[in-house]
Amino acid sequence: MVTTRAQYGLPDDAVVYCNFNQLYKIDPHTLDMWINILKAVPNSVLWLLRFPAVGEPNVQEFATQKGLEPGRIVFSPVAPKVKYSKLFINGNSLPWCVLLYSVEICGS
Questions:
Q1: Looking at residue 51, which CATH number applies to its domain?
Q2: How many separate domains does the chain show?
Q3: Euclidean distance between the first and final Cα of the chain, in Å?
Q4: Are the CB atoms for 69 and 42 separated by under 8 Å?
Q5: How many Å separate Cα 103 from the centre of its chain?
Q6: Which domain holds residue 38?
Q7: Strand, coil or helix: what is 106?
Q8: Residue 14 per-residue DSSP state
Q9: CA atoms within 13 A of residue 72's CA, in its CB half-sphere
Q10: Total Cβ atoms within 10 A of residue 91
Q11: Can you list the residues of the chain whose pLDDT is less than 70?
């Protein structure tokens, strides 16, 4: 299985923050914090699941009201977890490996 960022509408060269919870679990305070992080980190996006799809316009409207430019929050349909894990392992995201496989990260 080949999984690429492009399959999910994610830029190849951006920092990708992600949350794979259902949208109803994201409260305004949390979303506001994420928007502030995106504003502070150039070339970064927030990747969320389109689950449920009716929540997407609400998230986009909230982000626009907070001054976040369009395209910084990327939505994709729900897919098996193995697809997401392949994407991040190929992208060498150790924190994701920690969450998915309980691998420890050791600092140098």
A1: 3.40.50.2000
A2: 1
A3: 33
A4: no
A5: 21
A6: 10-79
A7: coil
A8: S
A9: 23
A10: 14
A11: 1-2, 80-108
Q: How far apart are CA 2 and CA 71, in angstroms?
A: 24
Q: Domain for residue 104, yes or no?
A: no
Report residue 64 as tokens. Answer: 């626009």
d(CA 9, CA 28): 24
Q: How far apart are CA 105 and CA 108, in angstroms?
A: 10
Q: What would the pLDDT profile of 28-58 be if each residue is shown by its tens digit?
A: 999 999 999 999 999 999 999 998 989 999 9
pTM: 0.74
Name residue 107's amino acid.
Answer: G
53: Cβ contacts below 8 Å, ≥ 6 apart: none
Residues 6+ apart with CB under 8 A from 55: 23, 24
pLDDT for res 68: 98
4: in domain = no
Domain membership of residue 98 (yes or no) is no
